[in-house]
């Protein structure tokens, strides 16, 4: 593909090696797609999120503070129409060794984000309806129940002195391709409608792995199989 036709977002993700913002996603694209199709985020929100990721990266590589409040307010200034404030901030960026003109140029627009979601990622925004959403709801219920039950059991172990006190439990479900070892987070698979690029059209049962993260530390992992029909993931 000619460079001029190349999607700016894909080029930036590749150039800066942007990864997923959380372990619920395998890639930044998976995250964008899920937030757009399922999460109800619009082009504007996702554009800002992407650009702030870029800003954060540039600040990091130049040793500039990346506190979220700073990123947010400086992003607003760079995108805003107060020319004096903007010039002042850009001079400050240059003083930190940042090519401010290039940075601003690299920010993507809403229309680029729109094209990226629709054309590059083949996204289709879902219109939520009670009738079609019960499957996703039942997954959410199962996940929150898994989280609750795990927390409860761990609290009990803690009270018996058999386990450390944990602050938080995260439950992430990973789905695996039935034909090859590819595994990706369920949220991302649901957003794009398949698990693996190669075995796109194999809709049979995929193994599910529950990974429970305790305060960022992986301590527990067990397997279950998603049963056909409406059986909850966890009893
Ligand atoms: Zn793209
Ligand atoms: Zn596969």
The tally of beta strands, per DSSP, is 4
Structural class: alpha+beta
Provide the succession of SSEs.
HHHHHHHHEEHEE
| Form type | globular
- End-to-end separation in angstroms reads 50 Å
Written description of the protein model:
The protein is α+β, with helices and mostly antiparallel strands and 235 residues long. The chain folds into two domains: 3-120, no CATH class; 134-225, no CATH class. Helix content is 49%, strand content 12%. The protein contains nine helices and four strands, in the order ααααααααββαββ. It has a four-stranded antiparallel β-sheet with strand order 2-1-3-4. A hairpin with a 2-residue loop joins strand 3 (207-214) and strand 4. The longest helix has 26 residues, at 134-159. The radius of gyration is 21 Å and the shape is globular. The model is unreliable at 202-235 (pLDDT under 50). Residues 177, 179-180, 182, 196, 198-199 line the site of one zinc ion.
Features:
2 domains, alpha+beta, 9 helices, binds zinc ion, 235 residues, disordered C terminus
Quick rundown:
By secondary structure, the chain is an alpha+beta fold. It has nine helices and four strands. A hairpin with a 2-residue loop joins strand 3 (207-214) and strand 4.
């Amino acid at each position: 593909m000619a460079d001029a036709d190349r999607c700016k977002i894909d080029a930036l993700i590749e150039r800066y090696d942007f990864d997923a913002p959380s372990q619920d996603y395998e890639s930044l694209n998976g995250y964008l797609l899920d937030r757009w199709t399922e999460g109800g985020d619009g082009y504007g929100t996702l554009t800002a999120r992407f650009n702030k990721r870029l800003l954060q990266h540039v600040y990091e590589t130049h040793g500039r503070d990346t506190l979220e409040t700073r990123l947010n307010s400086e992003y607003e200034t760079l995108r805003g129409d107060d020319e004096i404030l903007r010039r002042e901030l850009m001079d400050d960026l240059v003083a930190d060794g940042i090519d401010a003109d290039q940075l601003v140029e690299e920010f993507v627009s809403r229309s680029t984000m729109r094209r990226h979601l629709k054309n590059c990622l083949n996204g289709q925004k879902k219109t939520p309806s009670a009738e079609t959403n019960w499957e996703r709801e039942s997954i959410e219920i199962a996940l929150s129940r898994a989280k609750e039950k795990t927390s409860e059991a761990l609290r009990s172990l803690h009270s018996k002195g058999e386990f450390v006190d944990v602050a938080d439990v995260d439950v992430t479900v990973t789905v695996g391709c039935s034909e090859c070892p590819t595994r990706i987070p369920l949220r991302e698979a649901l957003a794009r409608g398949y698990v693996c690029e190669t075995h796109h059209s194999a809709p049979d049962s995929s193994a599910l792995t529950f990974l429970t993260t305790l305060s960022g530390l992986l301590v527990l992992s067990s397997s279950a199989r998603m049963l056909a029909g409406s059986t909850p993931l966890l009893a």
